[in-house]
Amino acid sequence: MSKPSIHQTNISIVQLIWPLLVENLLRTSLMSVDTLMLSHYSDKAVAAMSLISQIAFFILLVYMMISVGASILLAQNLGAGRRHEAELIGVGSLVLMLGLALTLSVITFFLAKPVIGLFHVEPVVAQYAQQFLQIYGGLSTFMALNIAQASIIRVWGYPRAPMWVNTGCLLLTVGGNALCLFGLFGFPVLGIVGVASSTVFSQVVACVVFHWIIKRKTNINLRLPDVKRIPGSVYRSMLKVGVPTVGENLSYNVSQIAILTMVAQMGTMALTAYGIVISLLRYVFMPGVSIGSGTQLKVGYLVGAGRHDEATHRVYRYFGVGVLISLVLVTPVVFWRQPILGVFTQNGPLLSLAASVLFVALIHEPARNFNTIIIPALKGAGDIRFPVYVGVVSMWGIGVFGAWILGLKVGLGLVGVWIAMAADEWIRGLIMFWRWRSGAWKLCSLVSSRELTISGSISEPSPTIPSPALLPVAEE
Questions:
Q1: Angstrom distance (rounded) from CA 19 to CA 10
Q2: Would you say 124 and 43 are in contact if contact means Cβ atoms under 8 Å apart?
Q3: What span, in angstroms and rounded, lies between the C-alpha atoms of 425 and 36?
Q4: Predicted pLDDT at 64
Q5: Contact at 8 Å (CB) between 395 and 424?
Q6: In DSSP terms, which residues pair with 104 in a beta bridge?
């Protein structure tokens, strides 16, 4: 049973962030463990996973299009006291997600081979990548439903539940990887196929558990029969908010795939170094990503309640904390880069290349916080399109084009690629910071104080508005 609790606007940022941070760090640890395990299995398998990581993230972002759009609308409606509308959005998000997931899973399975072929990698690397993508992407419906269910639970004020479920999911995956790669307890060595299969199995288990949690929380009243009463405007609203919201992330991911294509042209060593460095730096930028996710929810609650000035000052504080954490984390990684990189490989040239890239991270990582914290704040406030427009120009005009010039034409290789990515983060981030300071986002609220407004469509005012004391909120 759910405990009585307080209004969403009174949930502390720490209460929102720490479960997300634990969850993200565990997920990052899994990626690093995967890389470490695969490095003992085959260097070509590591290269394949470096290639797949961006494609897998692309699939994730497509599913996030629904969950992010729904979570922003949910946060503002719950903050404004509109529980009935929030329930309809929750049911609609699950239905829309299922339809999208089934379609994308089929497409991914049949297009895995031609997509991998675009990268022109070694045949063995391509084979590994194709095997993983067909299993992981072809059965990604369970992952999609997990994203939607976790988002609903988290926005409703129960951030710890997704953390525990995903923790169990990650542990199942690690255990499955160990069995499939090292043949523990006489289990057959299945390689990449086994790694992908263990990932899918853990997602199936998590999907069942998330469904049980939603049923158990009495103040999350999502009824499947309500799908017949959901107006088309609700689905359009989620897409109208979600598509441009994820558009900025999608543009970033596609630009990273373009950059990864350039890295692949530099050879297997550069591709392997890229995978190792990314696996290390995830520990540095994950706190900022977690702060940004919590910030998006917090700003959504506050904007829904009409507390714009409070939102303004809180975001500045969250951003400052994010920059400080990045500096504290990236400095020792760079200082002790040789022994840290030695855990992944003893290949001398590979070590030297990865170490050189880490130097650029000192400049790159603090700038990420502009985009991992300020952009989610803008989205949480309903300022959806500006980050997309600026992001597309900067990511491609500075990040991708700069990587091509510095990495391939000038000949700086992977170091040149990282310099271009750092320039993109700084320039794009400073523009986003200016946007927040301008206060233009205050005019972008998706929910008015008197009536529900979803993407420009105004519904009839609710006959009664629940008292804040009766609204669902954070767990103790």
A1: 17
A2: no
A3: 28
A4: 81
A5: yes
A6: none
Taking the chain (476 residues) in consecutive chunks of 10 residues, what is each chunk's mean pLDDT? 50 78 71 69 80 79 82 81 81 89 93 87 88 90 92 87 89 86 79 86 94 85 78 81 76 84 86 83 85 88 85 92 92 83 78 86 91 91 88 94 93 91 94 94 71 38 31 33
Output b/e per residue, 354-392; b: 16+ Cβ within 10 A: bbbbbebbbebbbbbbbbbbbbbbbbbbbbbebbbebbb
Where on the phi/psi map is residue 221: left (φ > 0), alpha (ψ -120 to 50), or beta? beta
C-alpha closest to that of 460 among 50, 82, 13: 82
pLDDT of residue 354: 84
Q: What is the pLDDT of residue 448?
A: 57
pLDDT at position 220 is: 80
What single-letter amino acid sits at 1? Answer: M
CA 124 → CA 34, 405, 418, distances in Å? Answer: 18, 29, 27
* CA–CA gap between residue 256 and residue 54 (Å, rounded): 7
What is the pLDDT, as a whole number, of residue 437? 93
Calpha distance 446→456 (Å, rounded)? 8
Q: How close are the terminal C-alpha atoms of the chain, in Å?
A: 12
Whole-structure pTM value? 0.71
The answer to whether residues 293 and 376 touch, using CB atoms and an 8 Å cutoff, is yes
The residue whose two tokens read 């962030």 is: 17
| Strand duo 457-458 + 453-454: pairing | antiparallel
Cα distance between residue 19 and residue 11, in whole Å: 13
> Whose structure tokens read 């599913």?
63
Measured distance CA(168)–CA(176) in Å, rounded: 12
Tokens representing residue 171 in the block: 């542990």
Looking at the DSSP assignment, which residues form a beta bridge with residue 187? none
Structure token pair of residue 315? 């975001």
Tokens for 415? 């170091």
Q: Which residue has the tokens 């400095």?
A: 331
Give the H or E element holding residue 453: strand 453-454
**Among residues 420, 429, 399, which one has the least CA distance to residue 319?**
429
The rounded distance, in Å, linking the Cα atoms of 379 and 292 is: 10
The helix (run of H) or strand (run of E) holding residue 457 is strand 457-458
Rounded Cα–Cα distance for residues 246 and 64 (Å): 7
Q: Token pair for residue 313?
A: 């000052």
